[in-house]
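Re: folding output
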Amino acid sequence: MNNKTVKEQYGTADKLNTRIALHSKYSVNKQGFGNWIFSHYRIREGMSVLELGCGSGEMWLGKDSVIRRCSRLILSDLSEGMLDAAKEKLRNHSSIEYRVIDIEDIPFPDREFDVVIANMMLYHVPDLLRALREVRRVLKDNGTFYCATYGENGMMEYIEQLLDGFPVRSAHNYSFTLQNGQEKLAEYFSDVQKLLYEDALEVTDADDLIDYIYSLPGFSYIRDIPRDRLRSVLEKNMRGGVLHVPKEYGMFAAKGIRE
């Protein structure tokens, strides 16, 4: 996916909010993926933090003490629409800076940040190796890069299996996953830890899942399939009125800059 496509897909927070709502409503693990990710951050007093691809800023809600702890917190995204949504959500925190930034060309000096964050976005980056070099460049020698992603055996694969009878084209983007991310990060960082988040969806209203599918960039062609046909397929796979949808999510914490 090139940067133009990413900007079009994430120009506003609407589609992202649809996906967040599904996870919030039906996730088995009630901690929430965003809260789980945040629980692994090690942000100490006076640290400088840069988030790339911050989206709507949802993860920072309720994290007032961590925000105050930062000597500098920059939330960035390719989309001005996303940044507008983040500014609105976090309007009570005047210390936060907002910037439009492309991860492939980060406009800061070398060794500027203690923490760099890039969640659920590295698989969108056209030149991943260039992006990782840029992250490494702006991290301090003892800094940490946190990046969440999905696996190759989760929701998307399950949905495609359910729609096997339709003219489904593969929507997978495996450029940075839980299966290959560690190896790619290891080219730039000497210490890469993988952490897995245990969860699934228990969906009771098929229409909510259809809305989710319609919001996905890789499934846009499915909008040509009548909604009632999709609903019929999903409901046939329910057991006791519940559709069990597997999830495979996690994150990496990378340290130790390789020269």
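--- second protein (sequence, then structure) ---
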Amino acid sequence: MIKIPCTSKIDIMSASNAPAARCKDGDTVIFETMDCYDGAVSRDGIRDWEGKVCGKYMANPATGPLYVEGAEPGDALGVEILSIKTRGWGAMGTGFGEHGFKNYEGEYVMRAFEFEDGFVKIGGKKIAIEPMIGVIGVAPAGDGIPTVTPDSHGGNMDCNKIVEGSTILFPVAAEGGLLAMGDLHALMGDGEVFEYGLETSGEVTVRVKVIKKAELRQPTLAEADEKGRVMTIASALTYEDAIRLALEAMYELLLAKGWDKTEAGMLMSMKCDLAICQIVDPQVTVRAMMDKEFFE
């Protein structure tokens, strides 16, 4: 089985990146990932600020990229998440003065949390961890995009539904797709409202599949299937634009399945749910969700 070490990492998703590994359509691949701090935070919660300032660490590094043979522009790349295994601890900073906490002042604090039998403790409460992938995507069309930024290629979507058992489709814009991922979270609520999730590192095992453009309408942005629900995930500078893009993509999926354009819209008002994935990255990310039965 192919395994890509965390030392093969990028901070820009781009068609110009040299592949860290190559695989065939249908192969299973393990990605060993760093956390979003690139290892700058220790298990006791101490952060190497001097190293960050002098450029010792990447911002939100992603492991890869992986070149998938047969993936060509116009195709879709399916990524089935078989397992997510985290290390035994995570770390979080604070977000006072930012976004939803703009009106609150507070000291910046970095804190580490140990995982015990799949749980983490905070404020006397014991909470089950729910590992997810924060950054996952392919090379975009045109200029490269930093791994801190989400867009139609995926990237830093911070969608807490990208978990073990889900499958994501990405639009292929460069030969081989050039898949990369990282920024694991042990826990993160919708919105990532206090600037960070419970950041961690680990290993992600995926199976990749090339879907030729003749077989399927090419997605215009990341689409996912998680626990019987279909999701379209969109990022933009404003909530309004991100919501519009996610809804348009969902609507087009229904039309492609033969739904009448009026009834498709009505169905979406009846059964389509919208949720915020994150509010703290250079672009906001939202998802639209519908039960898979409407696409069968």
